[in-house]
Amino acid sequence: MELLHGSPSDLEGRSGREKRAYAFLDRIGVDFDRTDHPDQPATTMEGCAQADAVLNVHTAKNLFLCNRQKTQFFLLIMPGDKPFRTKEVTGQLGTSRLSFADEEAMARFLDVRPGSVSVLGLMNDREHRVRLVIDEDVLKEEMFGCHPCENTSSIRFSTRDLTEKILPALGVVPETVRLSGSDG
User: Fold this and answer.
1) Is the Cβ–Cβ distance between 130 and 74 less than 8 Å?
2) What is the pLDDT of residue 159?
3) Which terminal Cβ of the chain has fewer Cβ within 10 Å, N or C?
């Protein structure tokens, strides 16, 4: 794996969703670095470790969640090393018990597959059905790491670009939570 800058010059063999992610970042003027890992898709936080080392970033955990009735959907972004505690999140969001949303909802709202969930998937949620929730610790990092809607590549850009360019371009206002990752 090697550190590369910006969009690939050759998009041959890349999925439409990945191409759209790069085009979106280029269109709004986000400077980013990437690394490709097509032989070892990063489907778990452990799988992201090698890409993180190349990018010198801590890839955030991206969880696609829904309420019990499947009427509210959430993209929760939190530090990869912090445990997810449902009770802690539901208490701050004032919603019923959250669980992982199914693949069908993930494809319908974000146009991504399991293991490829990313804030960039929100560019496909034109009706704004998914609420973006970000742990405040993620926003304290200088750089933000994620997939370009495919887990065969990883990218990094400044957290400032996330909050000042990407989210405004998407028309998304995030909700911030403070997660301890503890049971108490």
Assistant:
1) yes
2) 97
3) C
What does DSSP say about strands 33-36 and 61-67: parallel, antiparallel, or unpaired? unpaired
Question: Could you tell me the pTM of the whole model?
Answer: 0.91
Q: Rounded CA gap, 138 and 110, in Å?
A: 21
What averages of pLDDT result for each successive group of 10 residues across the chain (184 residues)? 91 94 97 83 61 83 93 94 89 88 96 93 96 96 94 94 98 95 62
Relative to beta strand 143-146, strand 153-158 is: antiparallel
CB 43 within 8 A of CB 73: no
Dump strand ranges (E) for the chain. 4-5, 33-36, 61-67, 73-78, 98-100, 130-135, 143-146, 153-158, 175-177
Given a contact cutoff of 8 angstroms between Cβ atoms, the answer to whether 77 and 134 are in contact is yes
Place of tokens 């890992």: 37
Hey, what are 101's tokens? 């949303």
Position 104 scores a pLDDT of 96
Please state whether 142 falls in left (phi above 0), alpha (psi between -120 and 50) or beta. Answer: alpha
Residues 6+ apart with CB under 8 A from 171: 128
